[in-house]
Specification:
heterodimer; A: about 120 residues; mainly beta; seven-stranded mixed beta sheet; four-stranded antiparallel beta sheet; about 50% strand; B: about 110 residues; six-stranded mixed beta sheet; five-stranded antiparallel beta sheet; 11 strands
Chain lengths: ~120, ~110
């Protein structure tokens, strides 16, 4: 079974631009979560989706948004990029949400650099 | 709010020694506690987890203990090897949701 995939793997943008990142979960997984990883703040939860519905959202500004499609693939969007948005963005998938089988498998991440 | 504290931030040991990393969580509703290992430039990978109805779990050289009353959980690695060198993250989760609250990470360096 293929693992979680994320595209693109690397991205360079300038301040004020917007960016869309994509995540394809493991086949059969219906839950996708997104995390931001930075040296200063560590791993921070952005949002989680299940069956195309956002179930939970972290403490990030409204510039950060996401969605999930009927095939469970998910995208996140960051508008009006700031230098501080430079980070590794990780998505994780799991079989279902809120059950005992809740091991989350991480993708390789998208490294976003904002200049 | 939800918070997970992790100590130490760095840990250097000699090959063959044991390593212990400790975490404390704040949310009483947390009932699932995974540990992830992240090697440089790679994705976090689950190495062991424990649920709140269990006090200890072991998998070969790795063990995790949980004290629900004190809201503490710890990772124990015995007979450390150079390939154990990585950053280790603890996390806490309320299985009503998928959200993981991570600790700040421990950089483990195992010297030959």
């Amino acid at each position: 079974k293929a693992g979680v995939t994320q595209t693109p793997r690397y991205l360079i943008k300038t301040r004020g631009q917007q960016v869309t990142l994509s995540c394809s979960p493991i086949s059969g997984h219906r839950s996708v979560s997104w995390y931001q990883q930075t040296p200063g703040q560590g791993l921070q939860f952005l949002f989680e989706y299940f069956s195309e519905t956002q179930r939970n959202k972290g403490n990030f500004p409204g510039r950060f948004s996401g969605r999930q499609f009927s095939n469970s693939r998910s995208e996140m969007n960051v508008s009006t990029l700031e230098l501080g948005d430079s980070a590794l963005y990780l998505c994780a998938s799991s079989l279902v949400a809120g059950s005992a089988d809740n091991e989350q498998f991480f993708g390789p991440g998208t490294r976003l650099t904002v200049l | 709010g939800e918070n997970v504290e992790q100590h130490p931030s760095t840990l250097s040991v000699q090959e063959g020694d044991s390593a212990v990393i400790k975490c404390t969580y704040s949310d009483s509703a947390s009932n699932y506690f995974p540990w992830y290992k992240q090697e440089l430039g790679k994705r976090p990978q689950l190495i062991i987890d424990i649920r709140s109805n269990v006090g200890e779990k072991k998998d070969q050289r790795i063990a995790v203990t949980l004290n629900k009353t004190a809201k503490h959980f710890s990772l124990h690695i015995t007979e450390t090897q150079p390939e154990d060198s990585a950053v280790y993250f603890c996390a806490a989760q309320n299985t009503g949701f998928q959200k993981l609250v991570f600790g700040t990470g421990t950089r483990l360096l195992v010297s030959p």
